[in-house]
Amino acid sequence: MNAKRLCYVCDLVDDPKLIEEYKRYHAKENAWPEITKSIRDSGIIDLEIYILGNRLFMIMEVDETFTPERKQMMDAANPKVQEWEKLMWQFQLAPPGAKEGEKWLPMEQIYKLP
């Protein structure tokens, strides 16, 4: 299996109370099992989210079945994912350059240790 690493960025509303609430939703003990299953079913092997201030950075390891388009179609067809996404929009902001409805934007790799 050939794993591939993808990195995305998203912003949060710059409100300390909302940021703490967002962190609570993402704590291991609060993970929605349906969301975890949806992530794994889409071909995501591993996923981590980091935060600095109100900027989020997501690293995903994906298998050969993963494509952003396939994940988007799966998410659109999953009512629980749609519920989660609606909930998360109260915390998340589209980063600069995002199109309407986008919040997680792919990052371009510009350096890798030789």
Polypeptide structure, described:
- The protein has 114 residues and is an alpha+beta fold.
- It contains four helices and five strands.
Radius of gyration: 14 Å
Biggest pleated-sheet summary: 5 strands, antiparallel
What gross morphology would you assign?
globular
Structural class: alpha+beta
CA distance, first residue to last residue: 23 Å
Q: Give me the strand/helix succession.
A: EHHEEHHEE
| Helical content band | 25-40%
Overall number of strands: 5
Strand content: 25-35%
Unreliably modeled segments? none
Pfam families: rhaM (PF05336)
Protein name: L-rhamnose mutarotase
Organism: Flavobacterium flavipallidum
Protein topology:
Blueprint: E1 4-12, H1 16-25, H2 33-41, E2 44-52, E3 55-62, H3 68-76, H4 79-88, E4 92-93, E5 105-106
Antiparallel strand pairs: 1-3, 1-4, 1-5, 2-3
